[in-house]
TrEMBL record:
It comes from the Eukaryota. This is CARD domain-containing protein.
Length: 112
């Protein structure tokens, strides 16, 4: 197995600023339960696949089992972190988390 590409992939996935912000809030994100309309937005924005969308809906809107997929989406496209924050702004109970994520995005020049 070629270890150099694997190390690069791990560094790119976990080491960039957007991924670090996501990791910082991952515990809080894992406790979130979203409405069907917010889950649909996650899919529409490209944060999750259609299969994951159905899985989240079956689990009552919990994001706890989708953190890895969300992390990969954020590391591939940093603007998706702000999209996640905007989606979380849709619900009163997730607004404080959304505001924290969006505020941290604003502090980082790599995230649009």
């Amino acid at each position: 197995m070629n270890q150099k590409p694997a190390a690069t992939l791990i560094r790119n996935t976990y080491g960039d600023p957007a991924s670090q912000i996501f990791q910082h809030y991952s515990d809080r994100i894992s406790q979130v339960s979203l409405t069907d309309s917010c889950i649909q937005l996650l899919y529409t924005e490209g944060l999750i696949t259609e299969d994951t969308q159905r899985k989240i809906e079956r689990c009552g809107g919990s994001l706890s089992d989708t953190l890895r997929e969300l992390m990969i989406a954020v590391s591939d496209d940093h603007s998706k972190l702000r999209s996640l924050g905007n989606i979380l702004m849709e619900l009163e109970e997730t607004k404080p988390l959304a505001q924290d994520i969006i505020k941290d995005c604003g502090k980082t020049s790599f995230i649009i």
